[in-house]
């Protein structure tokens, strides 16, 4: 047994970069959750900015959420086209990321998949306030599905700095934008989805 | 606004290494916890191995814990001399790390500070089974304080691979080994405590 050299701490190897997002989610890989918990949300219906960050359209929105039996605060949501995660090998037209932070600095992202269907009043409101920093009403519930079943795993931000300390909750039930809205969204960003990353033996937890 | 280049993802900058452990904990820096929670433990009283890992003496012990309203499974505990964390600028003679894992792979370490005082029956039992892989009884409660108040922050393992995804719960109430036991422990490792790492604006949460 070789002793760890505490006099050469700056030479210790450090592992990072193997817990990245997005990933390919699947029921085949998923394990069941081992404790009683459900996602709950209390989001405001008033947004306070819309900006194009260079990585996507981002909307300032406040609110609270209980994720895995702990409280989180909503910071913003933003949109990727097409989806970043896949579910059972299926990609979606878009993926909305609700970014939360806990009091200890822990980040959690709730992801809603988007498919073509009913027109979204939230997306219409967002479009009307592009690059504005004024408050405006959004229904928000039309981009958060009623069904809150999810896949959960530990990953990263999907844009630089790709920080690895992120709890992911990817909702199984998609929401809808109209085909016209999706086409419009892709005029802004036709491809701002990061490549799928290696799972590297991370557990995927399924909520049911 | 410059758009993020999705065609050159391999060149995206990645930040890591700024959420390391141990750190200097202090009441001056700590914020109050924003939700009701307490640490609870259900550890076995039977250990199954003792080994010198090269980074310290490690004891195989099973059990369960509720940390921040989520369930974790105990993997092992090990000992650093002197302590790795400091509390209000005070270092301790040793620090015991109880290493836990959740079903999603999340790691959590509960740390108990050690000062000179009553002799520990647990440490005596550990010594008697050094480098053995047989089951043996340990009281374990004598190295886990009755008072479960803690400092919490997000950090890393303190030995390679220094993985950053670790919830820390550093107990405020120390436990004791006899001075003779501490002297004996330091004959194995006089200095297996990692240097204090930069806080880098991470929140420190206090349980009360």
Automatic annotation (TrEMBL), chains A, B:
It catalyses: hydrogencarbonate + H(+) = CO2 + H2O. One of its GO terms (molecular function) is carbonate dehydratase activity. Its EC number is 4.2.1.1. Keywords: Lyase, Metal-binding, Zinc. Its cofactor is Zn(2+). Residues 2-208 form the Alpha-carbonic anhydrase domain. SMART domains: Carb_anhydrase. Belongs to the alpha-carbonic anhydrase family. Reversible hydration of carbon dioxide. This is Carbonic anhydrase. It comes from Weissella jogaejeotgali. The lineage of its organism: Bacteria, Bacillati, Bacillota, Bacilli, Lactobacillales.
